[in-house]
């Protein structure tokens, strides 16, 4: 079942795609939500190790492209610290931007139990800040949240998202 979260005048949907059902993507993207969130999770090379085998990198890109074509804001996220390289992170950012992703988050992977994948690297706060700047200034995402404690459902960006949506609609922003 999809997870829904509400912010003032904004509805965000996180779609757990496992079948590549584009009709469902279109249905959800045109259902009145403002932000369609689908996490690509990690770089392409690490997909098989990290993700459910029913989902994959190219499928996630197609989901995000399809949702964006319906006129909603799109958001995706990756975890760092699983052994990805800087070039792979850049390639992932470029791929996400190419399919129209507006909002991008990067967070530190933390091993939830000993049965899960090991943490390969703890990324420094300075490196996360470098990725935030790169994502906004070089790649061109409208908003990037990046830090060791950032999660895909990161709430600090909600005020920004609300302001962005209202601004694009020509509505007054009040805080």
Secondary-structure blueprint of this entry?
Layout: E1 3-7, E2 10-14, H1 22-29, E3 35-37, H2 47-50, H3 57-69, E4 73-80, H4 86-98, E5 103-108, H5 125-139, E6 143-147, H6 158-169
Parallel strand pairs: 2-3, 3-4, 4-5, 5-6
Antiparallel strand pairs: 1-2
Helix pairs in contact: 1-3
Nutshell version of this structure?
The protein is α/β, with parallel strands linked by helices. Helix content is 37%, strand content 18%.
Count of beta strands: 6
Helix-and-strand structural type: alpha/beta
Could you describe the largest sheet, including whether it forms a barrel? 6 strands, mixed
**Rg for CA atoms:** 16 Å
Task: Explain the overall architecture.
This protein is α/β, with parallel strands linked by helices and 175 residues long. It has 6 helices and 6 strands, in the order ββαβααβαβαβα. The protein has helices at 22-29, 47-50, 57-69, 86-98, 125-139, 158-169; strands at 3-7, 10-14, 35-37, 73-80, 103-108, 143-147. The protein has a 6-stranded mixed β-sheet with strand order 1-2-3-4-5-6, with helices on both faces. Strand 5 (103-108), helix 5 (125-139) and strand 6 (143-147) form a beta-alpha-beta unit. Helix 1 (22-29) packs parallel to helix 3 (57-69). The protein is globular and about 45 Å long. The model is unreliable at 1-13 (pLDDT under 50).
């Amino acid at each position: 079942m999809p997870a829904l979260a509400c912010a003032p005048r904004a509805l965000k949907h996180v779609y757990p795609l496992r079948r590549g059902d584009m009709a469902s993507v279109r249905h959800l993207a045109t259902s009145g939500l403002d932000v369609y969130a689908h996490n690509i999770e990690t770089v392409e090379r690490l997909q098989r190790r990290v993700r459910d085998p029913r989902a994959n990198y190219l499928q996630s890109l197609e989901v995000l492209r399809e949702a964006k074509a319906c006129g909603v804001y799109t958001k995706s996220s990756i975890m760092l610290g699983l052994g990805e390289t800087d070039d792979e992170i850049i390639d992932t950012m470029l791929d996400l931007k190419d399919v129209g992703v507006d909002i991008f988050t990067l967070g530190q992977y933390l091993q939830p139990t000993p049965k899960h994948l090991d943490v390969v690297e703890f990324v420094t706060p300075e490196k996360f800040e470098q990725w935030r700047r790169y994502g906004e200034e070089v790649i061109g995402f409208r908003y990037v949240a990046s830090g060791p404690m950032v999660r895909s459902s990161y709430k600090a960006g909600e005020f920004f998202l609300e302001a962005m949506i209202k601004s694009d609609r020509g509505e007054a922003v009040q805080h």
